[in-house]
Every structure is written in C-alpha cells, then in structure tokens.
Hints:
By secondary structure, this protein is α+β, with helices and mostly antiparallel strands. It has one domain. It has 3 helices and 5 strands, in the order E-H-H-E-E-E-E-H. One of its GO terms (cellular component) is peroxisome. InterPro entries: SZT2.
Amino acid sequence: MVSVEPLSAVxxxxxxxxxxxxxxxxxxxxxxxxxxxxxxRSLTSNDGNIQHVVVLSSTCSDAFMMLSINLHHQKAELCxxxxxxxxxxxxxxSIDCRIQGLIQDFxxxxxxxxxxxxx
Length: 119
C-alpha cells in the first residue's frame, strides 16, 4: 500500500546524511519539531527505544518524510513514505513530481542542522 524509500535511493548524493552519529539525529529531531510545528507527529515505542518523527506535507496528503531512530540497533534512517497510486506500480516520475517539494524542504532542514553543527 505504501513505499518507504531511504533518502539515499531518492538521490545518492544524500548518502552523507545517512552516516551521522546517533546524537546528530537526536538533534535533528528537535530541529524538525521546531521547523514543522504544525505539520509533524512524534511517535515513540513503549520502551522509548524507537522514535519516529513524521513530517507531513501541506500540499500532498499521500506522502510524508520520516526520521526513525532505533536505540536498540544504534541507527537512524531518513525516509520518504508515499502511497502507491492504483495502476501506477512504482512509477517514479509521477511520484517525484508530486512530492519533490516535500523532499527538498526536508533535506534543507537536515542541511541547516548540519550547517549549525559546523559553527
């Protein structure tokens, strides 16, 4: 029903964003919650070891961006999640056109956090 695509699959140039230490992603959580105050949702497992921050689109209800932090495995993921349209299979062209702005905005927030860490 949905496709979950890591940012590295969306654009291989984003691979460096997926190799940061776990603390960097925990800081990114705060940046995303601040930037997307009205358009984010935070979900945490009962034991507190798995956390998801979901960034919703204001223009496309069929897609969202997600930061997942798993303290059990000491890893994090940045993903795009979108609903597959009936009859389209995995047609990247139509999907990219609908959610490109959401992806760009999310990546810009990640880059801002990266830039702030350099200061």
